[in-house]
Amino acid sequence: RSHDKNPPNLVFTEALIGNEWCPASSGKKFAVTDPASGKVLAEVADCGPQEAERAIDSAASALPEWKLQTARERANLLQNWYKLIVEHKEALAQLMTAEQGKPLAESRSEVDYGASFVRWFAEEANRTDGDIIPATNKEQRIIVIREPIGVVAAITPWNFPIAMITRKVAPALAAGCTVVVKPSEDTPLCALALGALAIEAGFPEGVLNILPSNQAKEVGEILTTHKTVKKLSFTGSTAVGKLLMKQCAGTVKKMSLELGGNAPFIVFGDADVEGAVAGAMISKFRNAGQTCICANRIYVHTNVYDEFLAKLIVRVIALITGPGAGEGVTIGPLINASAVAKVKRLVDQAIGKGAVLTYQAELTHSTDRYYPPTILTEVDESMDIAQEEIFGPVATIFKFTSEEEVIQRANDTAAGLAAYFYAKDAAQIWRVAEALEYGMVGINTGAISTPVAPFGGIKESGFGREGGKYGIDEYLTTKYLNWQI
Ligand code: ADP
């Protein structure tokens, strides 16, 4: 029963409002399924506008006391939460693989990665320093203080069911804000498990509220238009981000938007090809290609093209597709059938326009749930696959000859989240790093995510930064005091 304090599998199925587990007032529930099998894992409360209002009220009542706690007190609670997440790593990882599909090894790393934001922002809670500014006359003192923005709403996606929540919630709580989270309808179980551990960690009631819901539009409308909510942090698709931005305009909410990417991955002529292939494997195939920073367009210089492709094929052949909990599996199912259909559409259209199917694994599993690891060559920018986020295990290879040309092609997209390149020449590295119009650039690496650095994009990939010393700024306002003494 979901009222158990901490069942061994950490499965909770009701909304968390004011530290109470609550059913939806409509009595409605929705099914959470295992993407590997379609099996129903749990029936979860389907929160609607009423629960959204209640959760916002609960966060609002908790705010006055929470923001007056010392930073150290908030940090201590975040540390407790961090320890509990790490302690329950295995149960959380199993839950994640069950509802999201990623290989168990990746789920375990995500639990660590997700927990690391809680630890990081526990530390940052103590560093929201202000300033004293030299005044313009003798009788004046000018002081700058940083205050929590207030009640925060967070809407999160399914591809990282834990980390996308902790990197919003931890800095918000550290700053002294209270939070309402609406996790993805595909992965509410990880969110609720985090909530259960937060209660156990000792957070006061109403500080963290979690609304599982299959009514994203209706709940989203409340979260984006309610006067009490002062900030919305969203990670998800660009289309939904744009809609939420419009909805937030009515009450001028502060926002952080982490939207879609279209990452170029450039291998220059003098690059360490072995390293570039390893980086491409991580960047492209992690989470079966379902990350917003996945290499979406792999540009390879003609000098190293044959070597790169030959080595990449060997590595892609070695991928093992299957249920995330399966022994040795490296590529799990995609999140649902429409995700598979989308990847198929992009690949078919590219082939129709002249791309070459250089390698495609044979599937031994359901073709509705899985997409086979694939390499497409002779890809160009006229194809949809170069313009849209693939979100599947398909490496698309483009050829180039000059730096100027590849920079122009790499930047020719509305997205500006992550980019990667492999090169050796120091002057070129500096030049290219500056020329790429992206919020994050991996140089001779395919792995850029870390809690100590600012994650986020430019252009239509959004704004705001998560992680690093910058991450907490998103939840603080700057107040200036002009004091005549
Ligand atoms: P993805 O392609 O990653 O599923 P979405 O943008 O559809 O991206 O989903 C990200 C989050 O946004 C999820 O929690 C989803 O429920 C939520 N969402 C989707 N549509 C809306 C909407 N109209 N209003 C508010 N939230 C939404």
Can you offer a commentary on this structure?
It is built from 14 helices and 20 strands. It is an alpha/beta fold. A 7-stranded mixed beta sheet has the order 14-15-16-13-12-17-18, sandwiched between helices. The radius of gyration is 23 Å and the shape is globular. The protein is 38% helix and 21% strand. Helix 2 (71-87) packs antiparallel against helix 4 (104-124) and helix 2 runs antiparallel to helix 5 (163-175). One of its GO terms (molecular function) is succinate-semialdehyde dehydrogenase (NADP+) activity. Residues 21-480 form the Aldehyde dehydrogenase domain. This is Succinate-semialdehyde dehydrogenase/glutarate-semialdehyde dehydrogenase. Its EC number is 1.2.1.16, 1.2.1.20, 1.2.1.79.
Helix-strand layout with pairing:
Layout: E1 15-17, E2 20-22, E3 29-33, E4 40-45, H1 49-68, H2 71-87, H3 89-100, H4 104-124, E5 131-133, E6 140-148, E7 151-155, H5 163-175, E8 178-182, H6 188-201, E9 208-210, H7 216-225, E10 229-235, H8 238-249, E11 254-258, E12 263-267, H9 273-285, E13 295-301, H10 305-317, H11 337-352, E14 356-360, E15 374-377, H12 384-387, E16 394-400, H13 403-411, E17 418-422, H14 426-435, E18 440-443, E19 462-463, E20 476-484
Parallel strand pairs: 7-8, 7-10, 8-9, 10-11, 12-13, 12-17, 13-16, 15-16, 17-18
Antiparallel strand pairs: 1-2, 3-4, 5-6, 6-20, 11-19, 14-15
Helix pairs in contact: 1-7, 2-4, 2-5, 2-6, 3-4, 3-6, 4-5, 7-8, 9-10
